[in-house]
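Per reviewer request, we include the raw input and output of the structure prediction for the construct analysed in the revised manuscript.
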Amino acid sequence: MNALPELLAAASVYAERSILVFPCRADTKRPHTEHGFKAATPDSEQIRAWQRWPDAMVACPTGPDVDAWVLDIDDPAAFEAACDVDLPATR
């Protein structure tokens, strides 16, 4: 199955909400673009142009410049046990 239409749709929804996106390699999680996350945009024409990378994942920049952070947890149960916390449901 070709995931491109689904990923393009997801990137478009983020862009409509003014969330910056950029294409990222599925195997390394590194940006496809020359300028990395600095190429992130909500511009729908640019997002459509990125279809030249059909294997791309949708990525969003994080950090203080965009007022967003990410906690990447590979094993939620182990994290909860180590920190003695319950993680809230997230998207």
